[in-house]
Design goal:
elongated; two-stranded antiparallel sheet; two-stranded antiparallel ribbon
Amino acid sequence: GIDQSGGATVLLSGTSTSLDSGPISVGSPNAGDKGTSGSLSLTTGATNSGVSGSIAVKTGKALGSNGKGGGIEVLVGSGNSGSGGDISIKSGLTEADFSGGRMDIAAGAGSYGGVLTISSGEGIDESGGTMYVKVGDGTGNVDGGNMFVEAGKTTSSTAAGGEMYVTGGYGAGGASSGGRTTVQGGVGNGKTGGELLLLSGYGYSSTSGKLILATANAGKKGVSAPLELKTGTSNAGNSGFVNLKTSDSLGGRAGNINIAVGQGTSGIGGEVIITGGASAGGGAKNSGGRTSILGGSGGSAPGGDVLVYGGEGKPGGNVRVSSGGGTQTSSGVLELTTANAGKIGLSGSIYLSTGTSSGGDTGMINLKTSNAIKGGAGAISLSVGSGDTNAGGRISMFAGDSTPKTGGDILMQTGFGQKSSSGQISLMTLNAGERGVSGGITLSTGTTSFGASGQLTFHTGEATSGSGGDIFIEVGPGDVGTGGTVAIASGYGMETSSGALKIRSLNAGVFGVSGSLTLSTGTSSGGNTGFFHMTTGEATSGHGGSVFVVVGTGDSGHGGEIKIRAGNSTYENAIGGAITMMAGTSKNAGTDQLSKGGLFSLTAGSGNTDLGGQMLIQSGPGISTSSGSVMIRTPNSGLLGKSGTMKLFTGTTSLGGSGNLMLNTGAAKFGSGGNVTLLVGDGDSGNGGNVVLTAGKSSMSSTSGGKLNFTAGEGQGGYAGRGGDVDIKAGMGHSTSGGSINIYSGVGKLTHSGNVTLVTANAGTAGASGMMKLSTGTSSYGNSGLLNITTGEGKFGRGGNITILVGTGNSGHGGNLTLLAGVSLVRTGGAIDMSAGIGSATTSGSVTIRSSNAGNKGASGALVFSSGTAGSGNSGSILIGSAAATGGRGGMVSISVGSGNSGQGGRLSILSGRSTVHTGGLLSIESGEGTSTTSGPVTIRTANSGQYGSSGMLVFSSGTTTSGNSGALRIGSGASTGGRGGALSITVGSGTSGAGGLLTILSGRSTKATGGAVT
């Protein structure tokens, strides 16, 4: 009709009261020999007003108790030429400003939901057909449509939501690989690419679900595939960074991060390598990326520790801390320092200590700078920082104790100059402050319980084409009171004789004369010059010792002279200085009468107008003040010479120990003991004179060479009395480098070399052990000095271990260990490189970074791998990966949260970076490439549930957005050359109870326009 609806057309087959109703077939007949069968079209007509007619294809209900609804099949017939026929299902297009028509594909509801299978065609001779699940494009200035793949929810309080699997195709052939699964954010043609966010399920009233990134277990004859976390390459700007971080906790501690390599049954264990980013740009500003390992901040509580351990084993693994190599310039600086203290605290101590040994020697510590080509080797400086209260910090050097044998040696030796002089050694205390005195120096050997105590030798080396080095013992000048005293005494013998004291010059060579010996007091500018006193001690049951002043016999010319001359006086009516010498007296026993005195033969100087001069050799005592000084020195040289040499030494021995040599100042009451100064005079040509301290050799079997001890004085005062400091400081270089300090242990020609131990002494009953600091000095122009801690190479054995270990305490938190690279005010900060040792013939050493096991009532320490914040530019990247392998597989990288027996398991969160002005960072998860075979699979799944729980939920979802479209989600397999594209399967797992898990594919909901389509 014109004004009414057209008539309906109904096709119904015949009914049956007891059997099937008749079928209806709508089709075109078969084609002829040379044609095609006719098309079949179900279409409604167009409409000018309103909605066009709909098409419904459905089967009727099954009302009986033993039937089901009829199926619907849309099938394209087979062919024998060309591609198979297509099926195209599209919802309606609209030209208005609304969404296109919606399409719903859903399986039937039931006690168990019906299965929904969408699959591409099977490849009989080639690859199976590719499947595209694609959201429609956004034309114009709008976003493309969103895609949601979501498993079914459950309303039960005990059941879990449906699971979701995205799995690469199964390689069923004998040598075929499984299909690859790629989850990738969208490509941004003009801006940042789309994000990829992997989040486990949110628990409204309990724990959120686990997130596991893992490759599948290996087969019977293969290895598990590697897992790689990395950001993509960058053509302009920095590449994206990787952040492994656990989130904050509002009701407990933040979750741990554990990077652990799995255990193997053959070969060496897998490695864990943390490497800062390489920089291919030139210039000093384009340095390699920094690697920082920081303990967690503790706020008002102690900060977290950083522990670096080598792996346990037979033997244990090594730990190596090395700065980066410089391919064209200097290598990086390695700084071992504790952070500055807070307002009311102390800066942390540094301990360098090797572990104890249960069978054999303990490990050695070697502080050494490496050899230099076209330059000088780096210096080593041991320096205590300045303080504004109390005494300055002390430096102590102790050789090792030994119960059955000789204690360890201490060797201080300057560097060898192959074409010039060897380095100097300076032992000196610094100048005193405004109201103090300069510190003393004591050179002393220890006491002995059996045998002779160690000898003290001052000896300069032999000279070729020159004279031997000088030795000066001189007390510095003072502007108030008497000058300092020099006392030289032999050793006391409690049961036998005291030691001899010999001062002499050595025998002359083939064409020379023996050296002169001069004992003289200094001149005086106001008052008398100092006395000179030589005497032997009193004797009980014997005679006093003789004094011999003898000139040696010669075979040419006159005999040598002995001259003892008193001082001249230029004052009017004064006389010259007196010389007093007295032979010994003899007294008869039982009488007061004197017998014949000792023979005396000395002649005083003649007087031109008066008596001859008197003679007195004696240092005057000071009854109420200081006694007179005694100075032994060689006089100043002439215009073309140098001052004479002075040697103090004991003679050789054929049986027993040689005599001791002691430089010792006397005890003081109401004052400090006198100083002992070994000082080499200044010179204006050539190198400065050396001071050499060398302990004695021993050629007897099973004995040790002499020990060399440096011990500061004890502070025995009842209040605030502290021990004296020991300062070892090389000389200043005004126009070149300062002098070096080298500390060597003794060489063992047949066995081990001696140990060198730097350790602060144990604390007293109410104090702390002293701090140890290894630090190079500041620099005003150029790099500051290098600090190198290394053990020597081992032949027929391994190199010595290096252990950095904080001692155990029984109060408060454990001591911290901090490794901080250097700060740069204008360039990139210093790098930290931690590398295990190379195994030239076998495996390289392991590197383990972990916190120790917790105590009975605590938690194990957190482990943080994080780059620092950036004030301008990108913050530093974090790379976790294993290196390439030749003749084997690349090492596995595993990120695993440890198991627990209380509460929920620790969380593992992988979040890409947040940006306040641009797109957030990309998160990419890719398996390893198989260059000649299949690339590795990637499995994202939650672990199997326990006995009474359900497995964790797995959520693939883009985040919400406040302006613009939320991120797209793509699930697909890659293109294939010479094969089929990988299959894509989304399946719900089977269950033995309740309805089967739901599989729901929902397009986006819109509150203002048409919801998103499903294509």
